[in-house]
Protein 1
Amino acid sequence: MMPQLRPRLPGDRFGPLTDVNPGERPLTDREKITQLEQENVDLMLALTQVYEELLASKTGGAA
C-alpha cells in the first residue's frame, strides 16, 4: 500500500486521501526483503569500520 495523505483545503478542511507518489508502484515483498538485506549489509560494514577504528585508537596502531 502506498503512503497517502489528505491535502488541506481552504477553511481548515481536508480533502480525500491521495497517493503521495502517484505513478509509482509499491515494492513487492521480494524487493522489500532485498532492500532490507542491502541496508543490513551496509550497517554491518559501517559497524565493522567503527569497531576497527576503536581498536586502532585503543592500541595506538592500525587495525
Note: Residues 29-59 form the longest helix (31 residues).
Protein 2
Amino acid sequence: MKIKMNSDAHHRISSAVTQSFKAGQTYSVPKATGNALIKRKVAEMATAKEPSSEKEN
C-alpha cells in the first residue's frame, strides 16, 4: 500500500521496532501499517501521479 504522509509520525511495528515517517513523503508500507496511519489521520492513500503540465505543440 502506498501512503502520503500529512505530518511527521512514528509507528510501532513491535515492542522493539518503530518506523519514522516524514510529512510530504510517499511510502510503500504493509497494509496494516498504512491503515493504522490513515486511521490516526497522519497519512492518506497515495494517488497516481498527475500528468505533467508541459505545453502541447
Note: Residues 2-45 form one domain.
